[in-house]
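I am writing to request your help with a piece of structural work I have in hand. Here, with my thanks, is the record as I have it:
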Amino acid sequence: MNLTRKTLAIALLGALAAPAAQAAIAVDVIGGSEVSFEGLLQTDGYWYDNDVANLDADAGDGEKTDFGLRRAELVLKGKGPGNLEWTLGYDASGDGKFLDTNIKYKLGGSKTHYVMLGQFKQPNSMEELSSTKNNDFISKAMITNTYTVGRRLGGSYNYGSDNWQVTASYFGRELTRNRAHGSGFGLRGGWAPINEKGNVFYVGASYVDYDVDGDTLRWRARPDADLSNRLIDTGSTGIRNADRTSTIGLESFWVSGPFKLQAEYMMNTVKRYDTGFAAQPGDDFDSSGGYISALWNVTGETWSNKAGVPGTSGPKEPASGMWQLGLRYDTLDLDDGIVEGGSMDTITLGVNYYWRSNFKFMVDYVKATSDRRGVSDDPSILEARAQFFW
């Protein structure tokens, strides 16, 4: 797993030049388990039109650009024996980290009634639970990147049907050392009163609550550009005396043929303990944000509902591919009381192209408007991504 960014970038270029592979590679049947191998490689480029701050993460190079390998996900999956399923995933980009690494037991053999142990995405945020390879835009929304609890070690119970689902989980730290930590719990439920492929209406809600492992919590966000510097930030000592944090999430999506509308709104509270000193108040810190997006499959494909997450279909005609046009409004406010983290709004225009079964190319234009402590900063960004998955 000790792969360098350069090696993986060469592998991605080689994969883009190779014939299309299958969606997953069957490995073997080992101990009664049908083992398969999946992967996702993404490389990104960002071109900044700065306003006040320099968004270039490598400011010392004198450029206004960032390039890098965004993801290099390698995943082994097993089905069986019996009602057991397992996953072992690793992202070899950057410093490396474990992805889903868990065991699932299907109760009664049902795909919607099961328990899971190990590391997995916690039940909060429709966008966070969506497959990374099918992101509508290059960057997930600011609330998703800021508030959501991603993969943590723990256990969950899942129950439902094709039309509704409920999930409850308890979690601790992330499997990879020196990353996210703090124990807590999550709840998520949703209902789709209309649930057919190409005709879906879904509504849901989630709640997550966990311990702040340390006395300080920091919220900050990039202008919907995954490799850029951040524009709004509560600061390294901004939210002091933090005890626990909780987030309420509301989510919905609607599909009609080749059109999809999707929206989420999140309200976060940081519970603080009172030290008795005026310079360190015990008032709770509240912040919130949300997004709404619209997607159009120009080539006519549609979506389905997969446990409260939009399921993206592949191209109807693999040789000609699938085209998507997208528009998103995204907002986040990190100001409350004496903590002035700032606020930011972005508008993103996007074009996606899925080619055959394994390739995707994305181009986004982002216009951001932000204000932090009375300083306005309104940059724009051009983003591109090349993706290979199997």
About this structure: Helices lie at 5-17, 126-129, 142-147. The first strand starts at residue 25 and ends at 30. The CA atoms of residues 327 and 349 lie 5 Å apart. Residues 5-389 form a domain with the Porin fold (CATH 2.40.160.10).
